[in-house]
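User: My advisor, Dr. K., asked me to get a structural model of this assembly before our group meeting. I'm new to this, so sorry if the format is off. These are the inputs:
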Amino acid sequence: MTLLGGSALWLALLLGVWGAIAGFAGGRTGRPDLQRSARHAVFAMCAALLTAVFSLEWALFHHDFNVEYVAAYTSRNLPTFYIWSALYAGQRGSLLFWATVLTIFGSLAQLLTAGRHRVYLPYVAAVTTVVAGFFVCVMLFAANPFDRLPYTPLDGRGMNPQLQNPGMVFHPPMLYLGYISITIPFAFAMAALLSKRLDADWLVAIRKWTLLSWLFLSVGICLGMWWAYVELGWGGYWAWDPVENASLLPWLTMTAFLHSVMIQEKRGMLKKWNLALIIGSWLLSILGTFITRSGVISSVHSFTQSGVGYFFLAFLVIAGVTSFTLYAKRLPLLEAETRLESMVSREASFLFNNLLFVGIAFSVLFGTLFPILSEAVRGTKVTVGPPFFNLVNIPLGLALLLLTGIGPLIAWRRASLPNLRRQFAVPSTAFGFTLLMLLVVGVRDIGALLAIACGGFVAGTIAQEFWRGTTARHRQYGESWPLALARLVGRNRRRYGGYIVHAGIVMLFFAFAGMAFKTETEATLRPGESATIKSPYGWTYTFTHLGISQYDALNRLVTAGTVEVRRDGKRLGLLTTEKRQHVDALGRSTFEPSTEVGIRSDLREDLYVVLGGVVNGSEQAVYRFTINPLVWWVWYGGMVVALGGLVVMWPGGGVPAVKRAQAGYMVKLVGKT
Amino acid sequence: MAGVVGWVAFQSVSPTVSQSDTLPGAGPTGKLGDPQRAGRPLEPVTARDNLAAIQAIEKRLKCTCGCNLDIYTCRTTDFTCSVSPALHQQVLARYEAGQSGEQIIAAFVAEHGPAILMAPPRRGFNLVAYFLPSVVVVIAGVLLTLALRRWTRLAGDRPAVAPAAGPPASPAELERLRHELERIDA
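Assistant: The format is fine. Below is the predicted structure of the whole assembly, which you can bring to the meeting.
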């Protein structure tokens, strides 16, 4: 089967080369036969790569340990669930996964793109096959997943214990899907530049793709945070690790694009900016891969590092120079159709919102790369860790949060003073009331105060928008309140879905503010002994060590510590935390012992217990007890963000883009007469 | 939101950690069947290990094992690491010798270089890292404001279109218009 997989990769490379040639030539000459051939090349490349994936999965499930990749990432006793995910547990497999998914997306773009946008498709096919072809090249010349060993081990090394977590089964593919799907909007942007058809049509063609990519990135990032929290054991969910930062960068620029594209759709402005954002987002997704793969910056994701990073660096430079050269050549065709009418308008607020999104992206990128810069310029090695990123980014993040609430309050084109007074009354009151409440209950942390108060402002804005819309429907159509609300959202999915996303963002900021009150302590306890810790809410938690048990599980030897938890004397239950020594099928240790955290979560705070180890081989255990306030809000905030994204993406409901364009055209005609 | 805030009701601004053994020295301490699988043997934690001052110092210093974590987080998370416990002992020794937090940090920087700090010191070239992003955002904000003023002035210079005269709209018609405009906006 590996011979089939290897052959499929070579075939995919040839198809990629042909698809690129046929696509560019077909687009340029307009020859239908070449255009058709490019389209078929994408489908065929997809089939070839799916064959390669099937071959690798076959080798994984059949424990073909002669294949280096299979021996490196699986063992006979690895649970089936994780054998499947071993496809992307290592670098070589994840490159194959990436290329395959890209051609699936490329094929879907060819199949699902509406008739009037088909003029872009030859170029889209060409760009898709070039990018997928690059990934196949990296596999064939530097990281072939089908490489064989000169001998066949009895068993494989198994999967890194930290990857044996349900979060890791879904987090990498979600993030990859986000990164990969940005290629389709990028391909359409390149197609628009190459074909010189730079009206709003290409934006309509990529709308769903940009939302899909943003949604995958959002879910992928949240799942990554969850995995880090439940698996790594350090008691947090975001450490400003370079690889985490790399995933945040395209998310920030894509979010900026989702806002600024509305200005182009409604007013025909910001054409240059929107194109630059799409190209920039795609380049950042490749940069993220470079950072993850190269090891150029020290990261906890060190299991992914290798020399292929420099392939990505070369590709990044070539792709960046090519796309921005083309972009520069087309700048004269990208003039705005209308001008901004007022400083106090929705358009202006979106521009400042974009400034902050891109500013934060720049700040994160600059901080991530600063160790390299410092070493190159001054010859001094420095570390840029969480204290730096928090200091630099919290003010920008708070400003952005505030703008999230301000933007929807300002009318398009021009806002009048009475209108502003009417719009700002409720959110400003919510801001003031929240701030006052926090001060009254004794909160003095400035970051937490501002985050929650700004969140109050945004929540006020969202509530006001829903209230006014629902009331208008209730009065005008006599609908019941629930029906009016449902129809309001259903018929304006983009707008109200966006507000749901904003609500999720408020929940996330609320959760981030909670980490200012994190409390932790270590304790060594004999069975029956207790440690107490006071929570930020004033409760006293008592953790009583009940004992240590040891047992064997499928692929690991477990040492479990159990503690009884009481809050102000009232029993809450038991928490178990484990040390796991993973072994292969022959009982040989495969990795250093790993830790499984015991977590008790509710709306207010998480109790987070880690078994550090034991003293002198006895039941005297070393624990770390952490109280993390408001962590629950991260996961549910993330879900609300995803829900809002789904509402925005759901087909139908809103006024179609064509009608909107027609409405704008009619307004212009009236204006000119 | 206000309800949520009220409900949150943080009662302690700077929470204090109190740890005490309610049953000191009590309870059986049996031997484990296979201590190896519980990881590296650990020393009992003492009260000084939990000192807030020690935590604060260690959270500013990076563990040199390559984990990217600070000393405190590494020693209380990665229990296979032998570097962070050793660095912790150095911090404790200096603290007990009467050195202040800043002195301890300066000693670590002298020994390991500035890369031992979790964030670059705020001086010299490092100021670029701290201020450049904010300066860029501020400058871009000023330029954007100037550009917006110019654009709006240019838009204002264009001849205004006189509103068509007609009978005044009723409140119901105005509400309907607002609703329709909102629908198009969406």
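One thing worth pointing out at the meeting: Chain A touches chain B through 126 residues (CB under 8 Å).

User: Perfect, thanks a lot.
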